[in-house]
From TrEMBL:
Record's subunit section: The complex comprises the extracytoplasmic solute receptor protein and the two transmembrane proteins.
Example GO biological process: C4-dicarboxylate transport
Natural source organism: Sideroxydans lithotrophicus (strain ES-1)
Function: Part of the tripartite ATP-independent periplasmic (TRAP) transport system.
InterPro entries with a match to the protein in the record: DctQ, TRAP_DctQ
Keyword Cell membrane part of the UniProt annotation: yes
Protein name: TRAP transporter small permease protein
Stretches that traverse the bilayer: 12-33, 45-63, 84-103, 123-144
Protein origin, superkingdom: Bacteria
Keyword Transmembrane helix: yes
Length: 171
């Protein structure tokens, strides 16, 4: 139940960030050409929305198996070694994203103490930087989920071509 709610929140956030960035950019361009004056904060907000979208999108990619991965070594290995390589790579993903989430949280705390604000929106920068610990923490959780599933079943999510959705790849 928790994972289904989290999945839905993740998907809604990604779509909302993308839609908002697109709408803001479109509106800013129309205003610039129609009224001769753009929206001064549009570019800054669009950048922040894309940062948040990318962080949550990376976690979504891990969850669905579409995150970028280099499997040349795994595919070239003997079957007895493939399982170990997959587990090691997932553990490295857990460690890396966990470290980024931890240091991202420390950075947010530091920036909060400085009182910095964004140039155009004048939002507290610590709020914007929350994308780092939230996105990386969610990505770490997704790696843990994928690792658990792989250890338990020997399968993991894999991206598929159109018409093959819902299938999972065995090792």
């Amino acid at each position: 139940m928790f994972n289904r709610i989290l999945d839905r929140i993740e998907e809604v956030l990604i779509a909302s960030f993308m839609a908002a960035a697109t709408l803001i950019t479109f509106t800013a361009v129309v205003m610039r050409y129609a009224a001769g004056e753009g929206i001064s904060w549009a570019q800054e907000l669009t950048i922040y929305l894309f940062i948040w979208m990318a962080k949550f999108g990376a976690a979504y990619g891990v969850r669905t198996g579409i995150h970028i991965g280099v499997d040349f070594v795994v595919n070239a290995a003997r079957p007895s070694i493939k399982r170990v390589l997959v587990i090691i790579s997932m553990l490295l993903g857990v460690v890396f994203t966990g470290v980024i989430a931890y240091f991202g949280a420390r950075w947010v705390i530091f920036i909060h103490g400085t009182g910095q604000t964004s140039p155009d929106l004048e939002w507290p920068m610590w709020v914007i930087y929350l994308a780092i610990p939230f996105g990386s923490g969610l990505m770490c959780y997704r790696f843990i989920q994928a690792l658990h599933k792989f250890v338990k079943t020997g399968q993991f999510h894999s991206h598929t071509t159109i018409g093959e959705q819902g299938e999972e790849s065995p090792l």
